[in-house]
Design a protein that fits this description.
Elements (H helix, E strand, L loop, with lengths): L1 H6 L8 H25 L5 H28 L4 H25 L5 H16 L7 H21 L1
Length: 152
Amino acid sequence: MEMVISSLPRMKFVSEFIIYLVPLIFMIADIVSGLAKAYVQKNIISHKMRSGIIKKCGEMMIIVLTAVVVYSVQWPHQIIAIVSVYMILMEIISIMENLDEIGVPIPKWIEKTINNVATDIDSGTSNAISEDDMKRLVEAARIIEESNKKEE
């Protein structure tokens, strides 16, 4: 973790368009995989699909509201990327669960890793980021933001 945090000031983050587009792509893939699962299980229910789509809209709203807060309070823009990555991880876990239930063979090491990540996210324990690490991440993001302003 220390190596990742120390390398953040040297990293260039992707454009903000990608920060919104990639989670959206994973959300669409999750909807498609969920629909495929329902089709295979002969269990297509319209209110479940509506509920899922509303949930995806809520997730995108979280990203957009994070951006509004970040811009209004002038926090480092990389916070939006962190929220987007979290949403992407949630979608990957859901897609893998759907594929597993359809019967798509998933290598055990991938399944184990996904289950560990899902458990960590749900419980907020184990490999979760410590408060000190979070402070270092925020400081690194501020340094990146300052260096980006100097380059402009």
